[in-house]
Write a structure and sequence with these properties.
The chain is α/β, with parallel strands linked by helices. The protein has five helices and nine strands, in the order βββααβαβαββββα. It has helices at residues 42-53, 55-60, 73-83, 96-101, 142-150; strands spanning 12-14, 20-22, 30-35, 63-69, 88-91, 104-109, 112-117, 120-124, 130-135. The relative contact order is 0.25.
Length: 151
C-alpha cells in the first residue's frame, strides 16, 4: 500500500463524462484521492454525498477531490447524475490504479469471498506526496477526517 511520505503513483482514468483525468493535472493543488467499492450503493452514496455537501470546505482548503471505483464510465456517470456529484468520479474498470495504490483487496461479505476496493483515502500535498492515509473509513465520518487532515 502507498504510505505517508511517498509520492502518489501517477494515473490517468476516464471521469464520468469519459474525459481522461490525470493526477498530474492537479500538481500545485492539494488532492484527495478516495477509493470506494461501488457506485450507487448505500455506503458509497453516503460518502459521495458528504463530499458534495462539503464542497465549500474542500474548496476553502484548496483541495480537489477524485473518487475512484472499479465501475465503468457509464456507471459512474449515472451515479454522478443521480446525486448531482460535481467532482471527478473516475472509472478504474480494470482496477489497475487500485492495484498500484494497494487498495484492491480480497474481501468477505455474507460468507462470499471476492476482490474489490478497500474504502481508503489518500490526502496529497501540492507536489503529489501523500500526507495522510485514511484506511477503512466509515462513510459518515469521511469528511470530518479528510477536512481535518487538510487543515
Amino acid at each position: 500500500m502507498v504510505e505517508t511520505g511517498q509520492q502518489a503513483p501517477e494515473f490517468t482514468l476516464p471521469d464520468q463524462t469519459g474525459e481522461p483525468v490525470s493526477l498530474s493535472d492537479f500538481r500545485g493543488q492539494k488532492v484527495v484521492v478516495y477509493f470506494y467499492p461501488k457506485a450507487d450503493t448505500p455506503g458509497c452514496t453516503t460518502q459521495a454525498c458528504g463530499i458534495r455537501d462539503h464542497t465549500e470546505e474542500y474548496d476553502a482548503a484548496g483541495a480537489v477531490v477524485l473518487g475512484i471505483s472499479p465501475d465503468t464510465v457509464d456507471d459512474v456517470r449515472k451515479f454522478a447524475d443521480k446525486f448531482d456529484l460535481r467532482f471527478h468520479l473516475l472509472a478504474d474498470a480494470d482496477h489497475a490504479v487500485a492495484d498500484a495504490y494497494g487498495v484492491w483487496v480480497e474481501k468477505t461479505n455474507y460468507g462470499r469471498t471476492y476482490w474489490g476496493n478497500e474504502r481508503t483515502t489518500f490526502v496529497l500535498d501540492a507536489e503529489g506526496r501523500v500526507t495522510d492515509v485514511l484506511r477503512k473509513v466509515k462513510p459518515a465520518q469521511h469528511d470530518d477526517l479528510v477536512l481535518s487532515a487538510l487543515a
